Amino acid sequence: MPEGPSLVLLKEDILQFRRKKVMAAGGNAAIDVQQLEGRQLLEIRTWGKQLFLLFSGKITIRIHLLMFGSYSINERIRLKRSVKLELHFNTGTLYFYTCSVKEMEPGWETTYDWNADLLSKKWAPRAARAKLKKIPETLVCDALLDQQIFSGSGNIVKNEVLFRIFLHPESTLGAIPPQTFTLLIREAKQYCYDFLAWKREGTLKKHWQIIRKKKCPRCDLAVQKKYCGKTRRRTFFCKNCQEKYV
After folding, report:
1. Distant-in-sequence contacts of 236-239, Cβ < 8 A, 24+ apart
2. Is there a shared CATH topology between the 4-111 domain and the 114-237 domain?
């Protein structure tokens, strides 16, 4: 599943279509795609793993790439992928595949906590801390995937941040020492910006410290792989140098 930094890059890629008029629209999404024809793409926003296309006529379409979604510009991918939405502009064509496409109701902006987006200028670490303090029994591996707290964080961010701050994924939030708690919030944001920079360079995987590794780069001991917490997402960790607090 694409994480927040990948959505920021998606937005950058398609900014070329901002202020352009949709000449034709298609795809098998469960929305009225024809209503987009003749509309101008006024604005493009992201919130975590979600992309919002704001058109004239007060129409907003949300794109969520889910686990296997993708997009392309100008060249349609000839694979066994469903074209959910295609937008033809006079300067090119934008395709979205195997994703969720939803038309938002008026007032949709108020249903999102824009302060929770790790890559937003509105990111509010104090608000994140307050939310975490209200769920002391939650495992930190689940908290890092909670989009209402860390919007844009995904499994890569979760694994790498916990390794970076020497914290075991099955630690409960209420037991984590104050200094480590502060590091958790700070590094969740920092890793997203590192992720974004490495993704731009095409070097993201070269910087992975714990994901898919067989040995811990710090301890030279076997890396543990487990499906942790309520989210049951694949988790890599070193039980020697990542402290567990319960």
Report:
1. 236/159, 236/163, 236/210, 236/211, 236/212, 237/159, 237/162, 237/163, 237/168, 237/169, 237/210, 238/163, 238/210, 239/168
2. no
Q: Is the pTM of this model over 0.85?
A: yes
d(CA 160, CA 147): 17
Domain ranges of the chain: 4-111, 114-237
**Tokens 């007032």 label which residue?**
107
Residue type, 104: M
What tokens does 154 get?
Answer: 């995904």
**Assigned CATH class of 4-111:** alpha beta
Quick: pLDDT tens for 61-75: 999 999 888 999 998
In whole angstroms, what is the distance from residue 148 CA to residue 131 CA?
Answer: 9
HSE, side-chain direction, 13 A CA sphere, residue 93: 14
CA–CA gap between residue 108 and residue 159 (Å, rounded): 32
| 66-120 per-position pLDDT tens digit | 988 899 999 877 665 679 999 999 999 999 999 999 999 999 999 999 999 999 9
Q: How is domain 114-237 classified at the CATH fold level?
A: Helicase, Ruva Protein; domain 3 (1.10.8)
pLDDT at res. 75: 83
Integer Cα distance of 171 and 180 in angstroms: 11
